[in-house]
Amino acid sequence: MRINSLKFSTLYALLIVTVCWYVIHLLLNTPTVPDPLLTFSRLVNLLTDDLLLHLLSSLGRIVVATSIALILGITVGLMIGLSQFFNTYLSPIVFVLFPLPKIAFLPILMLLFGLGNQSKIILVALIIVFQIIITVKDSVMNLKKEYFLSIKTMGATRIELFKHIIFPSILPSLFTALRLSIGTSISVLFFAENYATTFGIGYFIMDSWIRIDYIDMYAGIVAISLLGLGLFLLIQLIEQRYLPWVQLEKGTQQSFLD
Questions:
Q1: Burial class (CB within 10 angstroms; exposed 0-12, middle 13-18, buried 19+) of 151
Q2: Among 7, 175, 178, 241, which one is most buried in terms of CB atoms within 10 A?
Q3: What is the band of 130 on the pLDDT scale with cuts at 50, 70, 90?
Q4: Which three-class secondary structure state does DSSP give residue 33?
Q5: 162 or 32, which is more confident
């Protein structure tokens, strides 16, 4: 039921955005805002040409960067949340680095790791990892000590402690952090792909803009928007599938609001 509701709300939102776009196109009557129907038609044609390769290149960078950020972020977040030693010596470093605009490090990363995929992947990972570290750390530290004492008195091993207490507590917040990070990471990747690369949706959009090919440019913008939406919905569906208790809590809260 929830999946069907998600599909309906997504289609409804896309329809409203398309209608608004078409109205703006009619009002402005300028090539810089092309007809959305022509843009969608062009997008379909481009997907059978080279646009799909650009999208896959960007998606590959995002998947690798997100995987790296998850591994590092969960590990460091658990270390800080479960150990007073790491909390004392790592937390100040995390909180100093977290508010810094990571995109400013792109020139440094390109100098250290080259102009290829490595610098772009590391940049996106930097965007996501601090959000994950803080989310995991806060989730663990907000757990009541009684939970740990109760499961330990029943003879639970360390693995069972993580399985039944720690991971279920961090997963809801972790999925929320991922959803919030997706849009930011794609925006940063769009910027990074304008430097020393010939493949990537960011490169495709800016190349179309330079060639004054506005329909291709808008097709690229739609493509990168659909990429972000697809990743967002994928995270949402995984959460609904493997974290059913979270959806139950949300439904209960909604019933109280109604």
A1: middle
A2: 178
A3: very high
A4: coil
A5: 32
